[in-house]
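WARN no homologs supplied; continuing
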Amino acid sequence: MGHWETPESAVSVLVPTYNRAHFLPETLDSILSQTYSPAEIIVVDDGSTDDTQDVVSRLYPKVKYHRINNSGVCTARNIAASFATSPYIAFCDSDDLWRQDKLEKQMELHLRHPEVQHSFTNFSIVTEGNWARETKFDGARPTFFAHCEKALDFALICGASLYDELLTFQPIFPSTTLMSRDFFYRIGGYKDSLGRVLSEDLEFALRCVQHAPIGIITEPVVGIRKHTSNFSGSTFATTCGEIEILNYALQNHSVTESTKELLADQIALRRVGASYGAFSAGRFTACKELLSAIPNRYLTPKLRLKLLISNSPEPIARFLQKLFVQS
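OK structure emitted
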């Protein structure tokens, strides 16, 4: 045991789940195989209609299981946190995977540097059991780590807010996060009202990274599984969720005027991106709503034409849309 370690585990692992009985065992196995064993694993079942309860009670009798009425993932995470008894909490979505040293590396950073109250890790995409060689951090711009200093061979500490950076590059998924329980409550936990909005975790991540120092594990110790039942499987739906989340942040987060301008810019750019998907799918009402809310400076001639077509009567719009797509 290193001098940084505590004699007893200092972390509770929180697993919200909904109808993931077929994924949950592999997720729980990856948590149970950690070289730094968690003090407890808490599964909050958000009203599943499959055999989640049976899977947990039959295969994992030491895992603490709580069932709630379907309320959204934010509420499930908050309730899981309310049951936690350890000074640190780590979230893991019920279809994601942890490498065996995930908790060990994160907790070593926190216990060696107690000023770090929250951290996140690098990750890889996992498809049909295969971990991609490329990691999330491979796509980061150098500016993302501009205010970071090396703390350990596998860890950085960022001494400044990452809020603005997160608006253009989002590497923080719930399954990568670990924080002190005090920090979780100090920033207000997850927003229950956003629990049914795709990309709801972005709002929480934005609030987290306003507070430095921020710990970063540079190794991909988390696997984010991609599959057909992912809530984020639709690019269009995910982008629309991001628009709603960023609008919420613009209205509710305490940020500088320059950050507000950046938020507005990112909302507009995401509206443009979503409009392409809506138009291609023949969803003219959605396309019209998206483009009508964009400032004129973002409307290129091509976008103006799409808006004109979307405002046309349905039969004409569909005829013109086919010509537009083919051209």
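The two ends are 66 Å apart (CA to CA).
OK
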